[in-house]
Amino acid sequence: MSFSVNRQRSLWWGLSLVVILSGLAAMVFSWASLGSPLRLGLDFIGGTRLQFELACSATKTCSQPIDIDAVRQILNEQGLGKSSLQVIDQYGLSIRTAPLNVDQRTRLSDVLTQKIGNFDPQKTQIETVGPTLGEEILRSGLLALLASFIGITIYLTLRFQFDYACFALVALVHDVLLTTGVFAILGLGAGVEIDSLFIVALLTIIGFSVNDTVVIYDRVRETLKLNPNLGIKEVVDQAVVQTLGRSINTTLTTLLPLMTIFIFGGDTLRYFALALIVGFTTGAYSSIFIASTLLAWWRDRHPPPSCCEYTGDNPYTLTGCAYSPHPRKSPSIGATGGHGFPVSLCLG
After folding, report:
1. What pLDDT band is residue 240 in, cutting at 50, 70 and 90?
2. Which of 144, 104, 143 is nearest to 126 (CA)?
3. CB 199 within 8 A of CB 145
4. What is the C-alpha separation between 146 and 140, in angstroms, rounded?
5. For residue range 156-178, what is the model confidence (pLDDT) as tens digits?
6. Residues 73 and 165 grouped into a single domain
7. Is residue 4 part of a domain?
8. CB 42 within 8 A of CB 134
9. For 257-286, how does the pLDDT look when each residue is reduced to its tens digit (9 = 90+)?
10. Are 140 and 125 part of one and the same domain?
């Protein structure tokens, strides 16, 4: 076989570990500086977000970019000194404050227009979310993630076996950690915030990833039935090679429209698409290189019992054996039935 996923499994595990640890380090820094592992958006923490863009940016006639110090001074004068402030592409402005009523928002907008310049009304966005609703959205999102993990574990245990489900769950946690790690880094470096769509993206990533893993596990099970004498590593390698083309084609065809949304979509969908791009890529990677190799590693060290049937005049003839890497050549104590009668027993 030209490609063996198990031969280089230490490399696959090492790459994943490096990326995940980098993301976890970014989450720690984010927690220290922002009070949360990710830069939370308005949906989760509540408040008012105002987004403006200078009207001159459309015609490219702006004489100078927005002075962030001048904006900060205006916010201090309005009693909003603790607000989060970000200049976007030199001529755009994003302000996140405590919840503001209509009069406060209007007054702030008027002062900014007088001292900074005229803003494009079509690009102006103002949103307000109460802190109670934000906490409820965050709590509901986390509960949805937990429920999906539990449901997938039960389903895979019933469809396959418990160890299959465990390693599929490890792959899903791998995908979630890697995606959140990337957004933790983006939150620190580029000020990218997550909103409720990020939770939707994570749930979608979980569904995509587990589907890829199920396809490989199905092929592993089929190969074990057809070739019961093969070692588990060879079985997993065959299953991965047989499903590799499907996994790559499915992932690529899914990523193409997402890349289009990321490039041409608005601000609302751009980072949602980016989360899906990162998650779907890591989902395909984890199904091929993490879930399968972990299953082979575990089954090689902890082989399950193998049930065989002895038939024919020779009681030592085995037929219909399930996988066992080290089957015994003689029936275990208690196997009875005599010559010519089938006897079922399990080899461990």
Report:
1. very high
2. 104
3. yes
4. 10
5. 999 999 999 999 999 999 999 99
6. no
7. no
8. yes
9. 999 999 987 767 889 999 999 999 999 999
10. no
Listed residues 129, 146, 180: the one ending a domain: 129
Torsion angle, alpha carbons of 64, 88, 35, 150, to 10: 180
Kindly state whether residue 17 falls inside one of the protein's structural domains. yes
DSSP character string of 83-149: -EEEEETTTEEEEEES---HHHHHHHHHHHHHHH--B-TTT-EEEEE-HHHHHHHHHHHHHHHHHHH
The two tokens of residue 284 are: 């395909």
The domain total for the chain is: 2
Distance separating alpha carbons of residues 112 and 117, to the nearest angstrom: 7
Tallying the residues shown for the chain, one arrives at: 348
**72 pairs with which residues across the strands?**
none
pTM of the model: 0.73
Domain end marker among 106, 129, 152: 129
Rounded to 5°, angle at Cα 288 from 285 and 293: 120
Task: Report which listed range, 27-31, 63-67, 320-324, is most confident.
Answer: 27-31
